[in-house]
Design a protein that fits this description.
Elements (H helix, E strand, L loop, with lengths): L3 E4 L3 H12 L4 E5 L9 H4 L2 E4 L1 H9 L10 E2 L2 E6 L2 E7 L9 E4 H12 L5 E5 L1 E8 L4 E7 L3 E5 L1 E4 L6 H5 L6 E15 L6 E6 L9 E6 L4 E7 L9 H16 L5 E15 L4 E2 L2 E3 L5 E2 L7 H22 L3 H30 L8 E3 L5 E3 H10 L48 E4 L4 E3 L8 E6 L8 H4 L5 H9 L5 E6 L9 E5 L5 E6 L3 H11 L54
Parallel strand pairs: 1-2, 1-12, 2-8, 5-14, 12-19, 25-26
Antiparallel strand pairs: 3-7, 4-7, 5-6, 9-10, 10-11, 13-16, 13-17, 14-15, 15-16, 17-20, 18-19, 21-22, 23-24, 23-26, 25-27, 27-28
Helix pairs in contact: 1-4, 1-7, 7-8, 8-9, 11-12
Length: 584
């Protein structure tokens, strides 16, 4: 089968290419930049905050020094004037704390990992200008350093907010422009409480309503963000320095020595692509969604897109796929990101209103009483309503949570339950493999389905003793007979789960279901559900085009150069152009 073509070598494209390569899927990675990873002052101002699950993904993909090149936060403080309104401590385990890393360092680490993947071809200096597809794959034309046609099994546009792939597919990108605006300064300085991130509203000496965040980076650096009026002019360098000096005075009592290493001034938009899949073409990262208001992390959401899509494309590439499996990417990720954008839209008018912080407590989202500080902190840390993008509550690949005590699939399904809902990210508990290897659950993800048996007491025995005891022999046999690759692990405990609970987990760490004991037929049906059902000959079916699709797919020269496979790949076959339905 032809390689998967990924357009865009930013953090999302690099992560997707790595995740596919780790699953033995060949990738062609295209990028417009002539030199990848060139970090100027503007790029150095871009950073990413990664939660524990996303950081674990990046480490698994081959960036072992991620934590050394990031700052691990110990706490988050929200302060108004001189009063601490809220403090969140992340506990003694660094694995539970957010990581803050400069985006150019993240990209460099992912690129270095790609150098060890012989199945990835990186092509710089070329721009996609035409896309066609048929029942067997996609044909992509590029101009620039490689003016040629490329043949692939699938295409994924990870080419940013101004995505060429999205435009060629005719997918609309509605949303709101300039919902927030920020000035950013990255500087090296000694500030109070190293490792503690700060959100400061109305700092002493500043105009009323000013909001600053200070987030630590490694090597003594900090990223400072100022919320600016949306309609104001861009800050001059002198005005930015003035703000830096005022902030340092407010926090340290005087202007401590500092070195400015990067700066930016940018508006924040909120947009969501109407479709994330058109036949064999997909969108991910900023090509599919743009966010950033109230501290939302667009990069982390993009990495979740890549993790979600990679195992599904790998399964399709190796074993074939169903329409349900490929459609589930849009259903899960677009639904989750949309929920977060809606939560932000609800919160913005309340948090940006004049005098909004005069009251500590108000009735906000979903009628629950929450302070403005708590809501804003949740948005920055991806908690509360902002955590919606981590749970695929309506996933077609998960067993729905029971209502009124009964699941639709039978009385045994979800009878034990656990603290993780179906579609949620599983907790990172200690697990033991059948060969006796002890490790963390997150380290075993990404290779296939994972089946975890909760068996208290197994930790005190060698695996050879409990492999033949209780329900282990029957469960091991049932796992071996599943319709797709799966690994059986044993855990002493799992939050909220009783003894002999069996958890079925997807390669991306989302829970399919929890059941009691070993029922091979049920386990098989759940595993079949997790892969979207049996594969079909053409999983794209008629999804590649629909009545009213935009026909505009960037025409390209029909005899342009040599691509993968020689000549114009797929020449002579019936092709169809893909687009977005006219209706929303």
């Amino acid at each position: 089968m032809d390689p998967v073509i990924v357009a865009g070598a930013g953090p999302v494209g690099l992560t997707l290419a790595l995740a596919l390569a780790r699953r033995d899927v060949p990738v062609i990675l295209l990028d417009e930049a002539e030199v990848l990873g060139d970090a100027d002052g503007l790029r150095r101002a871009r950073t990413a905050v990664l939660g524990p699950a996303t950081a674990s993904l990046v480490e698994r993909l081959g960036f072992p020094t991620l934590r050394q090149e990031s700052s691990t936060w110990t706490a988050w403080r929200t302060v108004r004037r001189r009063t601490e309104v809220l403090r969140v401590d992340f506990g003694p385990d660094p694995a539970d704390a957010p990581l803050h890393i400069a985006q150019h360092r993240l990209e460099r680490g992912l690129r270095d990992a790609l150098l060890n993947c012989g199945s990835v071809r990186i092509v710089a200096g070329c721009r996609v200008d035409a896309v066609e597809q048929d029942a067997r794959g996609v044909t992509v034309h590029t101009r620039g350093s490689h003016e040629t046609w490329w043949r692939g099994s699938f295409l994924v546009g990870c080419d940013g907010a101004r995505s060429t792939v999205r435009k060629l597919l005719g997918v609309r990108f509605p949303g709101r422009t300039a919902v927030d605006r920020h000035a950013v300064a990255v500087l090296r300085a000694e500030l109070p409480e190293p490792g503690v991130a700060l959100l400061h509203r109305d700092p002493p000496g500043a105009p009323a309503g000013q909001e600053i965040t200070a987030r630590p980076l490694p090597d003594g650096q900090w990223r400072l963000d100022w919320l600016l009026p949306v309609e104001s002019r861009q800050l001059t360098p002198d005005a930015l320095v003035e703000r830096v000096r005022a902030a340092l005075t407010a926090w340290c009592g005087h202007v401590v020595p500092y070195e400015l290493t990067g700066s930016a001034d940018y508006p924040v938009h909120q947009r969501l692509a109407r479709r994330w899949r058109a036949g064999r073409a997909f969108l991910a990262g900023d090509a599919a969604h743009v966010m950033g208001a109230l501290g939302a992390q667009s990069v982390e959401e993009g990495l979740r897109d890549a993790e979600n899509l990679s195992w599904k494309l790998a399964l399709a590439w190796h074993d074939g796929a169903s329409k349900l499996l490929l459609n589930s990417y849009e259903a899960e990720r677009r639904g989750a990101v949309g929920a977060r954008l809606r939560a932000t839209d609800q919160a913005l008018p309340l948090l940006r209103a004049s005098g909004a912080w005069q009251s500590v407590r108000h009735t906000l989202l979903s009628g629950s009483a929450r302070g403005h500080a708590e809501l804003l902190t949740d948005s920055h840390l991806g908690r509360g309503a902002a955590a919606a993008s981590q749970v695929y509550g309506r996933s077609p690949l998960s067993v729905p949570a029971p209502r009124g005590g009964g699941g639709r699939t039978g009385p045994s399904a979800l009878a034990s339950g656990c603290d993780t809902p179906p579609g949620g990210v599983v907790s990172d508990v200690q697990v033991t493999a059948l060969d006796g290897t002890v490790g963390r659950l997150r380290d075993r993800l990404g290779r296939g389905l994972v089946v975890v048996l909760v068996a208290p007491g197994t930790g005190v025995w060698e695996s050879r003793h409990w492999l033949t005891a209780g329900l282990m022999p029957r469960l091991a046999s049932a796992v071996a007979a599943l319709p797709t690759r799966a690994e059986l692990l044993v855990a002493e405990t799992y939050p909220g789960a009783t003894a002999h609970s069996v958890l079925l987990i997807r390669p991306d760490g989302h829970l399919v279901t929890t059941m009691v004991g070993c029922r091979p037929a049920e386990l098989y049906s759940y595993a079949d559900l997790a892969r979207g059902g049996p594969p079909v000959a053409d999983p794209t079916g008629d999804d590649a085009a629909a009545p009213g699709d935009s026909p505009g797919l960037g025409a390209g020269p029909k005899n342009a150069g040599q691509g993968h496979g020689g000549g114009r790949p797929g020449g002579g076959s019936a092709t169809r152009r893909v687009g977005d339905p006219a209706r929303w």
